[in-house]
Design goal:
Blueprint: E1 2-3, H1 27-39, H2 43-63, E2 68-70, H3 82-91, E3 94-100, E4 108-113, E5 119-121, E6 127-129, E7 136-137, E8 144-147, E9 151-152, E10 158-159, H4 165-170, H5 173-176, E11 180-184, E12 205-207, E13 212-214
Parallel strand pairs: 2-3, 2-8, 8-11, 11-12
Antiparallel strand pairs: 1-13, 3-4, 4-7, 5-6, 9-10, 12-13
Amino acid sequence: MVISSKTSDSSLPTIGASLSTADKVSRDQLRKMIRSTRKSLSTIEQSQASLNACQRMLDELKAKKVQHVALYLTHDGELATPPLIEALWQLGIQTYLPRLHPFNAGQLVFMHYTVDTPMQPNQFGILEPKLDVRAVMPIERLDVVITPLVAFDLMGNRMGMGGGYYDRTLANWQQKGKPLPMGYAHDCQQVASLPCEHWDVPLPFIITPSRVLTF
Ligand SMILES: Nc1ncnc2c1ncn2[C@@H]1O[C@H](COP(=O)(O)OP(=O)(O)OP(=O)(O)O)[C@@H](O)[C@H]1O
Ligand SMILES: [Mg+2]
């Protein structure tokens, strides 16, 4: 692993086999804990974090000369994406948002996202583009998928909201070489160690307001 700036994990929560049963925190308990921590960041902390992370992400995306980037709209205290979306639009980089697949439960469809895209809330209350087949982008044509997450560790393991949507979307990315998954999260979402299941897709990049981690 390479970390581009200093880090410390001494006071981070740890879950998994290395802990005694008494200390063991379930995946759902950990989700609850981290979601509450990130939601408790102040508006100023949230906006400073999103600007700092945006700059780091832009540097990475420019270096990779990407053209097609999927990302997410902020929900539930996630690291805010509006500054990043605005900056990508300024650079002429095309942006895409996931929406729930209309027929295949558990799957996502990625749709071109512009300032004019009609939006609607989905069953989870998350805004997503209205379905329009002309705007659908095949996953293998995306260069990067910037994934939201609930928790990550210093092995690149990722825990999401529990739907398995990104695990399904990214299940074959390594065989195809695309799209490159990049986690985007607050520093406070780091934990010492996450338990992983065989379906969990680890992240080769995680960007936080203070660091770029590569694995
Ligand atoms: N590639 C896959 N194919 C089929 N089912 C999957 C796949 N990946 C994950 N799942 C299922 O999705 C469920 C949720 O997985 P998990 O708890 O890892 O979600 P998550 O990583 O937190 O969510 P997300 O990927 O949406 O951020 C699990 O029960 C798992 O069986
Ligand atoms: Mg998972």
